[in-house]
Amino acid sequence: MKKGKFCLVLFFSSLVFYLPSLRLPLFFDDVEVLGDPRIRSFSGIKSISPAERPLRLYTFFVDRKLWGEKYWIWRLENILFHGVNTCILFYLLTLLGIPLRFSFLSSLIFAIHPIHFETLLVISHRKEELLFFFYILSFIFYIKNRPVVSIIFFLFSLLSKEVAISLPFVLLAYEFTHEKKFKKTIPFFVILFVLLLYLPFSPFHLPSYREYSPLKGKHPVFLLLNLPLYAFLYLQKLILPWNTCIDPPFPLLSSPLLIIFWGMWFGVIFLALKAGKKTLFLILFFFITFLFISPLIPAVNPLADRYMYLSSIGIFPLLFLLHRRWKYAIPYILLITIFSCLSMKDWRSQEGIWKRTLRFNPSSYLAHNNLGVIYRDRGELNKAETEFKKAIHSEPRFYAPYVNLGNIYFKKKNYKKAKSLFFKALEKRKEPRIYFNLGLVYLYLGQPDSALYCFETSAKLSPSHFPSFLNAGILYFKRGDIEKAEFYLNRAYRLNPTHPKVKKYLEKIKGGRGTLSQ
Q1: Are 188 and 173 in contact (CB under 8 A)?
Q2: CB 59 within 8 Å of CB 39
Q3: What does the pLDDT read at residue 179?
Q4: CA-to-CA distance for 499 and 491, rounded, in angstroms?
Q5: Which candidate in 5, 55, 384, 489 could, as Cys together with 473 as Cys, close a disulfide (CB 3.0–4.6 Å)?
């Protein structure tokens, strides 16, 4: 009965803390992921492969069918899901033999911790919550000797996010510190072995580092040497989360400081081996799950807050177990609450989020670029231009600020500068919208042949991009190539049959044929 009351307190603590955020706008990744046309139809949802973390997209498909574009309900589901995850975490901790009071306090910190804001408030990051939910349920049923149910939840966790492959190692750590029944882990390692065996052909494959990742070109040994530093930085944000942000700085050390960090972690391992089984298991849980989100695994920013949603559960109960003093709990929870309230204040708007990021990481190219987009949309072109230039200076390999700065110069009718920037963007990435923008520049420079090439290329790269087909059709019409003009205009008509220019030019082409081409 006492456990049930604790669960209610934890669940409603999550709701009360996050409910004021329901009316926040969509954030960065949300626009692309929630706008995915495949989540609008049954045929589209069938085309999603296991490599795309399909459970998240399935939930979005259901959300769109039920709620349409009422995205505040989608975000409410994230918050409710977090409340459920907090309760199952509390239950797991009690199963592990952690005292009830410590389990409750640890779960309460998990419920309100600011490092989880990105996971909860960015709707498209629901994959982290799904991973946590199925991962922890699999662990719970493993402890309760329900292997079939545990394996089913393990498979669901794999379809939520590939980090779930760490679970067999967590189970091994549990057996090492608790029951010593190592044979129980065999089915999980068999599943893992099958995945690894077919890794080159499997949808569960490791991505490559993106062209603008800070890790691109770094030797794996160098990254391995830096692991204690990255673990320390994550621990700092978990214990004293004053600097949580979307795009944290990512240091790379090759100095004697690394020896100090390695010495610290060897000391932690030595102390862990002497500690009780609960303490040792929590330390192992953190390190095992951390390895699968560490810089050894390709990512754009390996220190992103959202990656800690699962790993954090090894630290919060550890804090209380290490000193076992109730009197420290209340001040610490109040401190975490203060950090969370300060962070939530910045999460009220897109501008606040990116300004917060720049406070802690002034060289964040993502923050500069996205802040520039905000200023551009407000019509503050000079401020936007400054931010895009800073983004290019911070990360010359990132293509987006070149495109955005080119659009600023296009609006200012400086077509030569715009053209130069679009070419630089194409050197980084061959994107249809860049070709389309370049085509518009060529039109204003009086070079229709070059413009036509760009529009055709954009149409080939993006068969659903209506403006590319429309502009290509109009240019072919003006040069007298009626057959090609009709082809592109018909494609444009299928994409947008109500557009007046499409109808106008198709009517001109129709001539004596008697009917409108479809």
Answers
A1: no
A2: no
A3: 85
A4: 12
A5: 489
